């Protein structure tokens, strides 16, 4: 079906399962970030108090973080989009070059259902989440690993958490700048005009 057939009609972009996975993961990640801030920022720690409770919420939210994605694997649409996110082609290199040169012309940024920036973000955040989960478990179950491992895990966990916070802020900022993209995640559909302009190689 051609995206140019009717620019005013909607195009299905995300299934209900995919939207549920995104929202649930975002909520858990938000809890992790907020509780981490309450643990490491002195002013917030004093304001919130109850450090042990905050630690437990942080630990369980982090442990649950992979669950929505694992549950989403039961959806064919979700698995198909994971495959799309995991594949890079020549057009993705073209998109990245245009982004690096701040070339915002749609013709210079060819993209399938996901552009190269979205693919890089998805890969990075997935890897970072696994590292945070592994280092967090070493910090939680202190009797299972040597002290030097726990010390290294704490260092990696803390600095990667800061990096994740910065990357998430950028992700949210880009989403706020693109109402049609947010609409796609909120309702599951986008306009044909937007899909044709921003994702010219995508043929749903």
Offer a quick outline of the entry.
The protein is mainly alpha-helical and 204 residues long. The chain contains ten helices and two strands. A two-stranded antiparallel sheet has the order 1-2.
Low-confidence stretches: 1-7
Tertiary shape: elongated
| Proper CATH architecture | Up-down Bundle
DSSP strand count: 2
Topology-level CATH name: Fumarate Reductase Cytochrome B subunit
Could you give a short account of the major beta sheet? 2 strands, antiparallel
Helix content: over 70%
Which structural class best describes the helix and strand composition?
mainly alpha
Radius of gyration, CA atoms, in whole angstroms: 20 Å
From the structure above, extract its key features.
71% helix, 2 strands, 10 helices, mainly alpha, 204 residues, Fumarate Reductase Cytochrome B subunit
Please tell me about this protein's structure:
- With 204 residues, the chain is mainly alpha-helical.
- The protein has helices spanning 16-40, 42-48, 51-64, 67-72, 76-85, 90-100, 116-140, 147-176, 179-187, 192-198, and strands at residues 10-12, 189-191.
- The chain has one domain: Transmembrane di-heme cytochromes, Chain C (Fumarate Reductase Cytochrome B subunit).
- The termini are close together.
- Mean pLDDT is 90; it is low at 1-7.
């Amino acid at each position: 079906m051609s995206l140019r057939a009717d620019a005013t009609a909607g195009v299905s972009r995300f299934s209900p399962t995919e939207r549920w996975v995104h929202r649930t993961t975002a909520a858990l990640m938000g809890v992790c970030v907020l509780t981490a801030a309450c643990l490491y920022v002195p002013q917030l720690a004093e304001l919130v108090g109850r450090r042990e409770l905050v630690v437990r919420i942080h630990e369980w939210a982090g442990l649950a973080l992979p669950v929505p994605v694992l549950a989403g694997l039961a959806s064919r649409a979700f698995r198909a989009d994971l495959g799309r996110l995991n594949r890079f082609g020549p057009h993705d290199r073209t998109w990245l070059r245009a982004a690096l040169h701040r070339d915002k012309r749609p013709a210079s940024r060819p993209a399938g259902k996901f552009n190269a920036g979205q693919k890089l973000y998805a890969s990075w955040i997935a890897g970072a989440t696994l590292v945070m989960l592994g280092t967090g478990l070493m910090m939680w179950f202190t009797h299972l690993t040597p002290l030097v491992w726990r010390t290294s895990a704490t260092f990696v966990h803390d600095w990667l958490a800061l990096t994740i916070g910065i990357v998430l802020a950028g992700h949210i900022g880009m989403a706020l700048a693109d109402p049609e993209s947010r609409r796609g995640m909120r309702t599951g559909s986008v306009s044909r005009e937007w899909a044709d302009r921003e994702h010219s190689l995508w043929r749903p």
